[in-house]
């Protein structure tokens, strides 16, 4: 899994999520996420400024509880 930094700049630790956990991101050009693993891919978009991109991720657990986390990715 490609681990993007947390919002505090530290690398996100690889950890297991309970089976049935899903991940989603808002509609951001060039950003995709694998819904059942949380793996994020960031593809360059023509005309978009370079630098870091804040990626809000919604994590939904099997008990239907939800966490909102932030990751940063390159633009």
Automatic annotation (TrEMBL):
Taxonomic placement: Bacteria, Bacillati, Actinomycetota, Actinomycetes, Mycobacteriales
NCBIfam families: YPDG_rpt
InterPro entries with a match to the protein in the record: RibLong (IPR044055)
Record-given protein name: YPDG domain-containing protein
Occurrences of domain Long Rib (ranges): 15-70
Biological source species: Corynebacterium meridianum
Stretches for region Disordered: 1-23
Highest rank taxon of the organism: Bacteria
């Amino acid at each position: 899994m490609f681990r993007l930094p947390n919002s505090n700049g530290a690398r996100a630790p690889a950890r297991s999520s309970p089976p049935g956990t899903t991940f989603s991101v808002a509609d951001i050009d060039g950003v995709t996420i694998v819904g059942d693993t949380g793996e994020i891919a960031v593809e360059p978009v023509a005309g978009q400024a370079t630098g870091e991109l804040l990626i809000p991720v919604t994590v939904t657990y099997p008990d239907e509880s939800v966490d909102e986390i932030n990751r940063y990715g390159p633009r």
